[in-house]
Amino acid sequence: MSQEPAWEVVIGLEVHCQLRTKTKIFSGASTTYGAEPNTQADAVTLGLPGVLPVLNAEAVRMAVKFGLSVDAKIAERCVFARKHYFYPDLPKGYQISQYELPIVEHGHLDIELEGGVTKRIGITRAHLEEDAGKSLHENFSGQTGIDLNRAGTPLIEIVSEPDIRSAAEAVAYLKKLHQLVVYLDVCDGNMAEGSFRCDANVSVRRGPNAPFGTRTETKNINSFRYVEKAIEYEIERQIDVIEAGGKIIQETRLYNPDTGETRSMRTKENANDYRYFPDPDLLPVVLTQEDIAGIRATMPELPEAMRDRFVSQYGLSKYDAAVLTAERALADYYETVVKSSGADGKTCANWITTDLLGALNKIGKDISTSPISTDMLSGMLKRISDKTISGKIAKEVFEAMLAGEGDADTIIKAKGLVQITDESAIIAAIEDVMAKNPGQLADYRSGKDKLFGFFVGQAMKATQGKANPDALNRLLKEKLAG
């Protein structure tokens, strides 16, 4: 009896990425997060009679930037459409989006998997649209509150091809995409505030050559961990249903992080259910090649290019370069320290990746809220370079800076941490240690070379750790040799 092929998972992701414009996509209302409910819902947002939408040009430029970063085709003519559905937080009864003619099509993103394997994930399209409002269920007994501040906020919806084959691949794709939009400065990437959220389309089939199965869409997942758990649960659920003789229903589902499960919300709409048609109040957007070239000229250095440059320019390993370029703010911090301190690239990388990031992780801060500024770290590295302090003393200075005791020079002066470079003072300390340890001295001179470390430790203790290590080692060898 032939065995059935193993299950294959097919995943496509739709990512809603909130653009970093100051105002909404079709009006001048503010997009600032955290305002009192419904204080940023203007007449256009509410769809009051007689108002007309006016397109935010900056949102268009940001969408083009994204398209260029994923090697996509930028439409020279794109059209806004009305997507009709009823929901309490959609005041007009339709959402302005793009349907047949989106601004970005046919791009790709390369992700790195375990073992250094690279996989290309196709990007079907990225289209501009307005966000809906937010339904509030807390503090409303038996009722739902509606906050329309978010309605009209500009988004790009980034739709992948169904090229993803596991929850781990989905997370790798999302992290790469998140890194990219933050580098481009088109999105702040704040998942907790809903600036970057994901809908996961999941189906299963019997082997890679079988037709695609019926998919479900799990909506509005706002953390990488939840995306992974929601997909893993949905895969297991679908396989269990099919193996029990049931059928998968095309539907929209929600993920509950408390239970780790997805649940049915409503049957999944098809495109014709939305009754799309071109918005009569908005002209087509026409972009010339000159327009696109002008936007391309404003593009920042992208993560992969910066990583490769850090390897070649600063002599870093690929691993260190990848860590330092994982976030734009961290990469900028590193490069500022290298340029202002005069220290070599590897030394700066070690202090930042090991000491600084380790300390920030312990106190629950990130590089943007670091108590140690670039000027402070650069100042400390300069004092190591000019021999004012040793690397060992620098650790004490670093901890004091982290605790808010001031910059390196202030701490060095206050604590009396200036390194001893006067060779006569170091020799005096060495001779005192030798005189106090005649037995160890005799053993060393009889061939027990490992005792050298003992004498280094004792001499450092005698100088309170302030002796210049290079000078101490050189002079100690001379004195111990007799």
Polypeptide structure, described:
The chain is α+β, with helices and mostly antiparallel strands. The protein folds into three domains: 8-291, no CATH class; 301-415, no CATH class; 423-481, Arc Repressor Mutant, subunit A (Orthogonal Bundle). It is built from 16 helices and 16 strands. It has helices spanning 43-46, 57-69, 167-183, 224-243, 289-296, 303-314, 318-324, 328-341, 345-363, 374-385, 391-402, 408-415, 423-436, 438-445, 452-462, 469-480; strands at residues 7-18, 73-74, 77-78, 81-84, 94-97, 104-112, 118-130, 134-136, 145-147, 154-160, 196-206, 216-221, 251-256, 261-267, 277-278, 285-286. The strands form four sheets. The protein has a nine-stranded mixed beta sheet with strand order 2-6-7-10-1-11-12-13-14. It has a three-stranded antiparallel beta sheet with strand order 5-4-15, with no helix packed on it. Strand 8 (134-136) and strand 9 (145-147) form a beta hairpin. Helix 3 packs antiparallel against helix 4, helix 13 (423-436) packs across helix 16 and helix 15 (452-462) crosses helix 16. The N and C termini lie far apart (86 Å). The mean pLDDT is 91.
